[in-house]
Specification:
The structure is a single chain. This protein has a single domain, classed as Rossmann fold (3-Layer(aba) Sandwich). The protein has a 6-stranded parallel beta sheet, sandwiched between helices. Strand 4, helix 7 and strand 5 form a beta-alpha-beta unit. Helix 1 packs across helix 10 and helix 4 packs parallel to helix 6. It contains 11 helices and 6 strands. 47% of the residues lie in helices and 14% in strands. It is globular and about 60 Å long. It binds 1,4-dihydronicotinamide adenine dinucleotide. The site of 1,4-dihydronicotinamide adenine dinucleotide has 26 residues, from helix 1, strand 4 and helix 8. It catalyses: a 2,3-saturated acyl-[ACP] + NAD(+) = a (2E)-enoyl-[ACP] + NADH + H(+). Pfam families: adh_short_C2. It is an enzyme of class 1 (oxidoreductase). Its EC number is 1.3.1.9.
Length: 270
Amino acid sequence: MAHNLLQGKKGIIFGALDEHSLAWKTALRCVEEGAQIVLTNAPIALRMGEIKKLAETCNAPVIPADVTNMEDLKNLFTKSMEHFGGKIDFVLHSVGMGMNVRKGRPYTDLDYDFNHKTFDISAMSLHRVLQTAYQVDAINDWGSVVALTYIAAQRVFPDYSEMADAKALLESIARSFGYHYGIRNKVRINTVSQSPTKTTAGSGVKGFDGFMAYAEKMSPLGNATADQCANYCVTLFSDLTRMVTMQNLFHDGGFSFTGVSAAIAEQMEK
Ligand code: NAI
């Protein structure tokens, strides 16, 4: 059900690859709530992906940008402002890539070229995006930026590997830049720490089905779905959450604050 929460707002959505992507669901919900959007992804993902379908449904242009390329990012913000005829109100950063994980290298035997790439794509990219927006003054006062993260930034999930470190950096950048953008433009910056969700990036983690099932049993409300994540992002882009900034917000059905659940304890007794 739509409530026109984003009526008149304009945003950029990074990271919609296919219909399972958290960004895909969020793009659809933003448009349903009255927003106009620009979609973006890495050029290679655009060639492989199905984003054209989403673009048609959302009546949105697609502007390619590799998040590690400053020229691409500058072009993205400049073209988006041209398209909208003014500044934007919100940004979703839904980008991640674990190179060592992908290549099957364990945490105790990382390749550091891959590791740099992982940090650049998954974490520093948020700084790159924010710095570009800040310097070209692309975001309206009281705008909102959300980046997606995972609880492995705070607690060890061994198979999440180097991505845990990338997420810790991502969350720190949201806090640090949140200060500066807040002072200058009242722009708020938060990370949403989402339950494990079956997507292309999610399924890349070894033993993913196991820890998704574990999280489901540990969370009093169960795992948050991709659609629910999209709803939460909409609230953060809306004017109803104007004073929330520099936070890591758990969207995980209570997983983060549960020590043990009856369901898990029962299983251990078997
Ligand atoms: P996804 O695979 O659909 O999205 C990842 C996106 O990153 C893709 O669209 C991909 O093309 C894009 N990307 C990769 N390299 C890029 C580059 N160099 N430039 C621009 N874009 C690039 O998977 P999902 O799960 O929707 O991931 C979105 C975000 O949510 C990621 O940050 C992920 O870590 C985070 N997240 C996912 C969870 C899950 O269980 N699926 C749980 C918590 C957070």
